[in-house]
Amino acid sequence: MKKLIYTVSFMFIVQILFAQNIQVEETLLENRRNPLGIDIVHPQFTWKLSSDKRNVKQSAYQIQVAGTKNSLENEEGLLWDSGKVNSPQSVHIPYSGETVTSFNKYFWRVKVWDQNGKSSNWSKIGYWQMGLLNKNDWDAKWISASYSENSGKRPSPIFRKEFDIEKDIQSATAIITSRGLYEAYINGERVGDEYFTPGWTNYDERIQYQMYDVSKMVKNGENAVGAILGSGWYRGALAWEDNNNLYGDNISLLMQINVIYTDGSTDLITTDSSWKSSKSHIQSSEIYDGEMADASKIEKGWKRPGFNDSEWYNVRVESFGYDNLIATLNEPVKKQETFEPKEIIKTPKNEIVLDFGQNLVGFVKVKVNGKKGDTIKLYHAEVLDKDGNFYTANLRGADQKNTYILNGEGEEIFFPHFTWQGFRYVKVEAANEYIKPENFTAVALYSDMDETGSFYTSNESLNQLQRNIKWGQKGNFLDVPTDCPQRDERLGWTGDAQVFSRTAGFNMHVNNFFEKWLKDLASEQLENGSIPHVIPNVLGDDATGSAGWADAGTIIPWDLYTMYGNKRVLEEQYKSMEGWVQYMENESENNLWNTGFHFGDWLFYRPEDDNDGRAALTDKYLIAQCFFAHSTQNLINTAEVLGKEEDVKKYSELLKKIKKAFAKEYLTPNGRLVSSSQTAYVLALNFNMLPENLRSQAAKRLADNIVNYGYHLTTGFLGTPYLNHVLTRFGHHDLAYTLLMQKTYPSWLYPVTVGATTIWERWDGRKPDGSFQTPSMNSFNHYAYGAIGDWMYKTLSGINSATDPEGVGYKKIIFKPHTNNNLVSEKVEAQYENEGLTMVNGELETYYGKIKSFWKKDEGKIKMQFEIPVNTTSKIHLPTKEISSIKEGNRSLSSLNDVIINKDETGNVIVETGSGIYNFTIEN
Questions:
Q1: Which of 65, 124, 651, 822 would bridge 80 by S-S if both were Cys, CB 3.0 to 4.6 A apart?
Q2: Is residue 489 annotated as part of the catalytic site, yes or no?
Q3: Which of these, 659, 662, 620, lies nearest to 636 by C-alpha position?
Q4: Catalytic residue check, 571
Q5: Can you name the CATH fold of 453-797?
Q6: Domain 333-447's class?
Q7: CA-CA distance, 740 to 713, in Å (whole number)?
Q8: pLDDT digits 0-9 by tens, 745-785
Q9: From CA 713, how far away is CA 724, in angstroms rounded?
Q10: Per the residue annotation, which of 761, 835, 867, 888 is the catalytic one?
Q11: Per-residue pLDDT reduced to its tens digit, 647-664
Q12: Which position among 489, 578, 835, 845 bears the catalytic label?
């Protein structure tokens, strides 16, 4: 018995001695998990680490890459072995091995060493597959339908081909793209689960292709491959005034399947003149107007081998070429959450309406048994009017209608293929027997980005606001960042995207999403440097150059760098950033930019009876000068990161001149701005346009304006994102918190009080009397005002990243939560009884792992928990000046030897830590 005890004890000691202090938890290649179709010859590796110990750092790493999994495991014939590299870097490390080639698959793994020289185990093996690196890799031909289309509605064409496989298959890879949208099939099965492929880009310059592993879909013997196309963004109506066929009037398909047999030989199945085409059962499918499908026109079996296509048309081979084909960088659109009807409503107008309880973007799937020729029509809307009737006036020219005609052959399932709707409510026109809750399911669609952040508090109204912000992002991050998902617009407005980009990065992993969009922005930029209002640009070369909109070209790259440590995006966008700054400089006279069209502080709040100027229109050229300075500052910051010293000097001098011109034109000697609006002071303060000695009094003027306006904001799209940040920065945090908690309009919580489940375009989209704002511009799913989420994460939960080159991307974390959130006026307090926050929990998944900031007020104490990922450090600002009042766990703070204790400029305690979970209790 003693021998057994000794053996067990010895084994336990051995386990402790040899336990791994650090482990590789997850690996990413180009910020994705095992991606297919990479056309970057030096792709970047990232990995996340874990440890059950504190203060763990990486001191070195080793990456190995091979052409097969066995080679990697046996360390034979490696294409790259970095060897042991003494470096703490664990994100964005470029491949530096042998030259990669098209189509090939590569396998990789990494191990790391901690600060004590102990190594981890090798990570799990990851892989990636290269795409097509040059146009000679394409053997497929572009094909389109040869039949003539009637004017008006355009049916979706279908294509097919059969082929034989006579050998055993090792692998099969499909590479597909289209001019238009596509869905592809092999032997009756859908290829992939993505929607709206190949995505929306500047098609004249960039058309994405997708790569799929179809090894299990292709079989020995007879096979069939097919596809169906939709008009999509390529030739569908976009924007206004019958804006059709923007990129072309003919949709076409390009597809090839690369087959590798077990004997090492290869084969290609490609689109070419041997394919056949016909009209599908989809009679029309347009983004704004919806889809019409007649199931009685489905040609059974066309996706499978053995189908008789002798009556089909020969295809037409097109000569588009391959010069503008690129691999897909961002995450595709996929099905996400589903919703069942909460209620079936019979409106005062005697219409039948389904309420799904959430304003979402996607479609409604219908599952029915019925008679041949019966029709089901679905109309989509975001809201009901004050009488409870179905409301579609705000859709403008968009029908948002899906029509399904039954074939009467048992259970039938309908959903649109090449369109989507923005809706909470769906009006159904059909026979009564079809209108049952179980026959309808709403399916949300959005780009398949990981959700990275969560924000939860003791206040349910704030929690609903956070949900609304997220759903606004989900509904409008559909391959490009759109302004709204329902009316005849759905465009990639640059102004909306830039004001929200920081909040977007808290909620979801938007690195690749925005990097792809920025490439289109650069490709659409005019030769003179001006940037269009929308990307991709479908409004023409005259719709460019508006301050606060075009500045997306400098703001979003810098945001991506600070959020993700993504230096490459700065390198790739630098020319575009510099072009925009030079455009503003060229348009200026004596460094004052006061020319051209500008949207200004779009949709700011101004009541009709406002005659005293408190909510005054902000001078648009004042705004332009502020953004001129801001973009120049972003360019200076970028030049510093990239080591462009001459540019730093050049643009630093320019920035001084811009601010001097601002002061001369818009600032009185006593520090008053010529525009007395909230936005004027917010932008001037946020972008440091005022001399330091005048900033405090300017912030006081801003605060007084807000108080005099009944503790309400009046800012629009450009002022709102920075409003609370400025108030907190200049000592008016309680006023910022008051604005957040304000429940009468204009405010963030007013829509919450009337049942909103997304962010509105206008502060008073629905007025207190139940009436609506101007129908021509009144979206109920418009994320711009959701930019308050950035302040909520950074200030209430306190999660911030350092911005120095060694600290970006949350390598160095700054925790500075504001736990003292009170209301500034007894008058306001009376409106919001018990509205002070007692708990906030914020979490963010980064490239290093999960960050957490939690605090709770409990019986005279503040309890706080912070989680810091391995290989990072943090500075935690605690809300007390007394070190003796702080415990970490059950120990006094001063007794800890694994942290550094300092004080900030106000005397509050700062605790500097490494990785781990820290639990503080502060006696209040």
A1: 65
A2: yes
A3: 659
A4: no
A5: Glycosyltransferase (1.50.10)
A6: mainly beta
A7: 10
A8: 999 999 999 999 999 999 999 999 999 999 999 999 999 99
A9: 10
A10: 761
A11: 999 999 999 999 999 999
A12: 489
